[in-house]
Amino acid sequence: MADKLEIPGKLTFDALVATHERIAAYVHRTPVLTCRSIDEWTGAELHFKCENFQKMGAFKMRGAVNALLQLPKEQLEKGVATHSSGNFAQALALSARMLGVKAYIVMPSNSPSVKKAAVRGYGGQIIECEPTLQAREDTLQQVVAKTGATFVHPFNDEQVILGQGTAAKELIEDAGPFDYLVAPVGGGGLCAGTALAARFLTKGTKTVGAEPLGADDAWQSMQAGRLIPQTNPQTIADGLRTSLGDKTFPVLYHLTESIVRVPETAIIEALRYILERMKIVVEPSSAVALAAIKEDPTRFRGKRVGVILSGGNLDLTLLGEWMRN
Amino acid sequence: MADKLEIPGKLTFDALVATHERIAAYVHRTPVLTCRSIDEWTGAELHFKCENFQKMGAFKMRGAVNALLQLPKEQLEKGVATHSSGNFAQALALSARMLGVKAYIVMPSNSPSVKKAAVRGYGGQIIECEPTLQAREDTLQQVVAKTGATFVHPFNDEQVILGQGTAAKELIEDAGPFDYLVAPVGGGGLCAGTALAARFLTKGTKTVGAEPLGADDAWQSMQAGRLIPQTNPQTIADGLRTSLGDKTFPVLYHLTESIVRVPETAIIEALRYILERMKIVVEPSSAVALAAIKEDPTRFRGKRVGVILSGGNLDLTLLGEWMRN
């Protein structure tokens, strides 16, 4: 199977550079922070790309706005649509508002009201559906058929992947060179973009994907050489419960050195370190990247490592529980 | 009574400038952040001085290191001592370690183990005592008698006040001019230093102290024109439960426009806004300053305001509870 896995042709150096220029006016160039006590804790020299400070609180903004900016004007004017209950819903809504077009967001009826409120706050129009994947896809099709809006996939899309890759591009420019880049893996858009940036912009910086042990479809897929969908994910890292797509998997397969899996206890410990030592708010998915470095010392000790902190949309009501356990 | 309240003579413009130069190599020049959604929420233009990113996580570092740098060498070499279970204990321990001298920290035996561990982590030597004020003072006297160490008061000390004032000095230099500066009030060291910086370095910037309604000794003292000690403080803002001192109160009395009191619900709401919107970790005492701005819109709406976020040493296990209520 593996030899059939081809990196999509649109994912080129020139495309990454053009993407970065295209989206620059719409996203923050987020800061890169360091933390001496976390360096001591891990034994590595870490440089954290703080996408928790990105607009709407996550890297997803980069890919969403890039995808919209690549649509022909007459198509864009009919609006855009996606199904998501996470950060991509907010990113698409905010990107659409910035470009003056409509965003239709299909969300399961049991989505937390705080997430619906966030999407509405960015001007997104919510269409509720039954909480099944089938209902989400059916409802999305109906919305697209009725409105003429363009479906934008949260990660399995070349323009989205290129957009997410700009975070690593900035990290390399601002604090490189690195021995390693580490990014969390959910659908694989961020990690694929990171691996592409490392390949295009560095001499030999290796990319490692970080994944919860309880949602390890990327690790399983890498071992098998084919896409193995995630079933029944068990992790607090809600951004990493999705399966890879056929556009992200080949990039990970060819361009990452490894996928490192981490148990939930390590995610919580890393989350605590980031909150307590760096004094910044990140979501559990971000902590997975730091946890991977702590869990794999033979790989990372003494190394210069760029870490993508993917987002900061943390549910504060859950935090105390995690920290007590 | 009020006419007897004299600002200590050492608290001069020249002393503040000299203090800033003296401590510059030992503390971080912390960043000033803004947040559009909090500006919209309050109706004011806010510039946040992020002392949560200060060494050991709070502004207390500034005053502690300044006090130590002002001691004669032979006195400093015998070490320093204080009684505190809060941020000043850590600040004194770290300052002493940076200067290569001993710090003796008297702590009540029922102090949380995490606080003891933090003091030990900075090299402080803990002397436990019964959890009463009398026992703390007696034990401290014994330590001083035995070791020859110099007692450094957490706030009622000119050198500490001047050190704390450097946070506002930097804020004014980096983001001024302001209509208002707002700082939380516990013992009054930070707020006094802030008011002095405003008086010395600006033309008419007003200083407002922010205080929990459940620990409003500063407000009570201002009304009475004399020190009224805090009894039975009831607030989650653990840094603000102490009483003013006879060196901080006169500064507040003469140089602040007002003390604004805020209920606990407003502190929690402001804390949530800072964590969720700014994506930074602050302790409840810091949120009191933002809460005061939100609670007093006639004073602050449309104004350019510098806000001191005093620290980031938040107990994460308590956070979920506060956020659920």
How would you describe this structure to a colleague?
The structure is a homodimer of 325-residue chains. By secondary structure, chain A is of the alpha/beta class. Chain A folds into 2 domains: 2-58 and 157-324, Rossmann fold (3-Layer(aba) Sandwich), CATH 3.40.50.1100; 61-151, Rossmann fold (3-Layer(aba) Sandwich), CATH 3.40.50.1100. Chain A is built from 15 helices and 10 strands. In chain A, strands 1-2-10-7-8-9 form a 6-stranded mixed sheet, with helices on both faces. The N and C termini of chain A lie far apart (42 Å). The relative contact order of chain A is 0.16. The mean pLDDT of chain A is 95. At the A-B interface, helix 12 and helix 15 of A face helix 12 and helix 15 of B.
* Corresponding CATH architecture of the largest domain in chain A: 3-Layer(aba) Sandwich
Residues in helix, % of chain A: 40-55%
Cα gyration radius of chain A (Å): 18 Å
| Strand arrangement in the largest pleated sheet of chain A | 1-2-10-7-8-9
List the domain count of chain A as a whole number. Answer: 2
Per the CATH scheme, the topology name of the largest domain in chain A is Rossmann fold
Q: In percent, how much strand structure appears in the residues of chain A?
A: 15-25%
